[in-house]
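Per reviewer request, we include the raw input and output of the structure prediction for the construct analysed in the revised manuscript.
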Amino acid sequence: MELLLQLYTHQFLVFVLVLTRVSGLVVLAPVWGSTVIPARVRALLAIGMALIISPLCWHAPLDDPGNVLHLLLLVGGEFAVGLSLGLAVYIYFAGLEVAGQLMGQMSGMSLADVVSPTSDTNVSVFSQFLNILVLAVFVSLGGHQHLLEALLQTFQQMPPGQTHFAASLVDVLTDILTFSFVMGLQIAAPVMVALLLSIVIMGLISRTLPQLNVLAVGFSLNATVLLGALLLSLGILARVFHEQSFTAIDMMRPVFMRSGP
């Protein structure tokens, strides 16, 4: 009876640690981490994923925590693993918001801000449009499956209760952040060049026709140029984000592999 009780205790502890790691991913990862999805649904999703993964980890050795402090350290380590993996992809979505903000500011459309369901902050309409677009690309190309595959790999390299972060984790996240902002500038660059040409043309027209209402005409022209340039660059945008977001997940894999005991 005592042996059976120990077995159930071990399985329950493994489930708690797995649930904590999965919850860390669900908090920040695209698709699941969106504030549009109710917290109850996200919690049920994390529990369901943990129930599926936990039996795969029951054979892993796990020492008795002994005290509450040790248990909290184990839980904190598990949550940090999932959180760092979700953060790697979330950073790339933040780069897209930067691109959208640059477009909105330069076109004069920044007054039409909306609340982003990803970051729960006010962003431009174009930031929200880019976010929805790349989210659809991310899901359609299997980005969420790639992310789940990386999560499962962490359980192979670091079983529950055996989390050890590599010293390069901060460097990898810093590199991902750098690539994210570079990607945002690359995406915004064609549109910004088109808008700059539009502004120059409007300046020349205003000098030729002083009676022209530059504010009204310029606002409409900028909006048209912005939408046209954005439409022409959608294919490149989707391809660049697809490559970069998958690269972010792959950059995190060696960190967890080196973190193994």
